[in-house]
Structures are given as C-alpha cells and as structure tokens.
Amino acid sequence: MPTHLEGVEPLLNVSDVSKQFGSLTAVDSVSLKVYPGEIFALLGPNGAGKTTLIGCISGLIQRFSGSIHVGGLDVREDYPTVRQLVGLVPQELNFDGFFKARQILEYQGGFFGVRNYRERAAQLLEAFSLTSKAEANSRWLSGGMKRRLMICKALVHNPALLFLDEPTAGVDVELRDELWAYVRRLRESGTTIVLTTHYLEEAEQLADRIGVINNGRLLLVERRNELLNHYGERWLQVTFHRRVEKGAFADSGCNRVESIKPRTCRFYFRDSTLDEGETPEIVPRLLKQFEEMGLMPLRIEGGRSRLEDIFRKVIGEDGADNGGGENE
Ligand SMILES: Nc1ncnc2c1ncn2[C@@H]1O[C@H](COP(=O)(O)OP(=O)(O)OP(=O)(O)O)[C@@H](O)[C@H]1O
Question: Signal sequence: where (predicted)?
C-alpha cells in the first residue's frame, strides 16, 4: 500500500482474479487495490489482459474466479449498486452516431435514473467544451469531440471510479494533451481513475501508481517515482578531450559504462534522489576520477531512463522467468 494511503479503505479491491477463455488464461491471479483519488495506470502490451480485467471489474464479464469489490460491495452480488459507482470509457465508440450529443447524455442519464439528467447533460457538455455541439448529430463530431463525448457519457451518473481503456489510442499529440488535461481535472474533482495504456509516456505523465501486466499476470505495482528509481537508472554522458576506452572506468562504481563515440562515454548508475534537480553523489566522485586520469570533460549531459526502458526490463525479466526470452 502507498504509505500516504495507510488506513484508507481501497475504492477498488481485486483479489486473486483469474479469467479463462477456453484454454487461454487472459487474467491470471491478479490482486490489486486502488485508493480514492488516485490515477492508476495499467500498462501492458497487446493481449496482456487489460480490457478483460476491466470487463470483470465493470460487470461486463461475470464469470471469473476470485473476488472484486468496489466501495466495499461485491461486483457480482451487488451488481446494480456497483454499476452506479463505475463509469467505463471503452476503446471503441459506444454511442449511436444518429443521436445528438445532448440526447446521448440525456438518455444515458435516464438509463441510470439520474433525477436532474437534463442539467447534468448540459453541465458535462459545458465542462468538456461541447456546448456548441449539443444539437449536432454525434457522427459529425471530430475524433477528439467524440472521445470527449464518450467520457461525458461515462460520467453522467457521477461514478466514483472511472475506467479509461486506451483513452488516447490513435489520437494526435494536440488532442492527447487536451484529453490528459481533462483527466487531470477529473481527478481534481474527486474521481478515481484507472486507465489502460500502451503509451508509456501517458502513464509517466498522468499516473500516481503504475501496474505492469503481461500474459494476464500483474508483474508489479509501484508508485511512479519509486518505479523510476527502482528499475530506472540515471546516466551521465561525458565527451573528453581525447579518446578513451570504457574499460578504463572499470572501477568507477557505476552500474555500467557504454562507449558512445571514441571520445564519449555514458556512465549509468542507480540513484535514490527523487528530485530531478538533485546531484547524485556519484557525480563528484566521477569528476575527481576523470581529473586523476588526466581526462578533461569537454561536454557533460545527464538523463534518466524512461518508463519505456523500465517496461522493457520488467517484461523481459518475465519472459526470462517463463523460459521465454521473446522480449529480451
Ligand atoms: N471474448 C473473448 N474470447 C476469447 N478470447 C478473448 C476474449 N476476450 C479477450 N480474449 C483474449 O484474451 C487475451 C487478453 O485480451 P485483452 O483484450 O484483455 O488484452 P488487452 O491487454 O486489453 O489488449 P489490447 O491492448 O490489445 O487491447 C487476448 O489473448 C485476447 O485474444
């Protein structure tokens, strides 16, 4: 459990859930807790089991083993109540393009028994900058507007927990940034969000915690910064005034050293500083070593591994554990 959430009841509690499709195990013994107010990203390659897991949680899939509770209620035994707590934005369009944007939201409100469904629809159209399109046939909306309308539709009944399945799949950079801004605003207004994504940058930008899923198994769940620090490395790339072999740095104390060019080496090290601006303690030691070796650094650049590198590492380790190696 994240330390800042100790004592807080999880909004979503998935316990040892498995789902088979014939001989295929799409979700394999997954346990997961999501706490109120979080953005949780479920990260995994195609076919990892993300959509199936969301289907089990949101009630679309009823036959699975294990248990799932939302707000303390069992998703199968208390389905009608749980359905009111959950909103789902699927990957594909889920409205009839011949209805107007306003109608889609009002009908959805009616379906969920929202008393003031007209006001609610108008409020959502306003919040998602769709008021001017309220009376437009939804099939004529732009791709970004359609995505926003799908989010509105999932929010009509004011769910506590919102699932976004691949919210920015196939959208351009501008629209992606716009959708991210909406997701952040939703969280600020108190909605707990679980999103699935292939886009590592999306998880890196939005999520408080990240779960990595592969072949139906949840391989790890960590706070974003901890994940970066645990699996990630920082590096320092130094261009010297003369050629130098990476072997010359065997005693540098780094995890590894790479030769980038004849005069340029990259030094990788683990670092526990969370703050990007902090200088890791190995840096002054390296600089001293360069001086002792008579090496003059002409150019120094720094960076840290991105979530993408980490994802490859975790999935690669999983492949190795399973005797695979496809991802290595
Ligand atoms: N109704 C179904 N019948 C049979 N197999 C299914 C069914 N739904 C999903 N699967 C299989 O279960 C596995 C997990 O699929 P799922 O859609 O959950 O993956 P995903 O992580 O959401 O993938 P993507 O990122 O491509 O959407 C896949 O091998 C898929 O083919």
Answer: none
